[in-house]
Design brief:
The protein is an alpha+beta fold. The chain has 7 helices and 4 strands. It folds into 2 domains: 81 residues, no CATH class; 104 residues, no CATH class. The longest helix is centred in the last third of the chain and has 35 residues.
């Protein structure tokens, strides 16, 4: 985990490289799969959520998609005011951030849900098992669909003499199959 510091002048600093960094740099770290923690240098408080929120705004508004940013942030605010365990489940089952969700990270999230009263201790095991079962089912469904798509492409290639397939059409089908494979791998 990369630890960053924020100084009184509101600048972020990477003690490891001895350099000042921007919110764009933070976004690049996260996209690259790094976990970060941001500490306020004056108070010693962990201000990671605040910096991640600012980073999201900076990056999403930089893409000039204000409608998406407004929608996403409003939806998150609404959902976190309700049942966080349900939101977490929907995010995971939707594949959002799944490639970076380790067993340790999931356990920490579940522990914090228990500490906040979102989840009872005796529910943690069944909650985790239900989530993993749904993920496995989804991966299996994706795998079956990939097999069907590959068979279909194979049949079309065999019939290629009778009906000419456009290379672009075949390329598009293969691209879609590759996307499904990639999605399944992240599960």
């Amino acid at each position: 985990m990369k630890v960053l510091k924020r100084y009184a002048n509101r600048r972020l600093y990477d003690p490891e490289t001895s350099k000042t960094i921007t919110l764009e740099d933070v976004a690049e770290m996260i996209i690259a799969g790094e976990e970060i923690k941001v500490i306020d240098n004056m108070s010693g408080q962990d201000i990671t959520p605040k910096i991640l929120g600012q980073t999201f705004l900076k990056v999403s508004l930089g893409q000039r998609n204000e409608e998406f940013s407004n929608y996403m942030l409003s939806a998150l605010i609404r959902e976190t005011g309700k049942d966080i365990s349900a939101l977490f489940g929907r995010l995971v089952l939707g594949g959002i951030g799944l490639a970076y969700l380790t067993k340790e990270k999931m356990d920490k999230i579940l522990q914090s849900m228990v500490a906040l009263g979102e989840l009872r201790l005796e529910e943690v095991k069944s909650y985790r098992e239900d989530l993993l079962t749904h993920l496995a089912q989804r991966a299996s469904e994706n795998s079956e669909q990939i097999q069907e798509d590959l068979k279909k492409v194979g049949r079309e290639l065999e019939e290629g003499g009778e009906k000419e397939l456009a290379v672009e059409d075949l390329s598009e089908k293969i691209r879609k199959i590759a996307e499904r494979v990639k999605e399944t791998e992240s599960l």
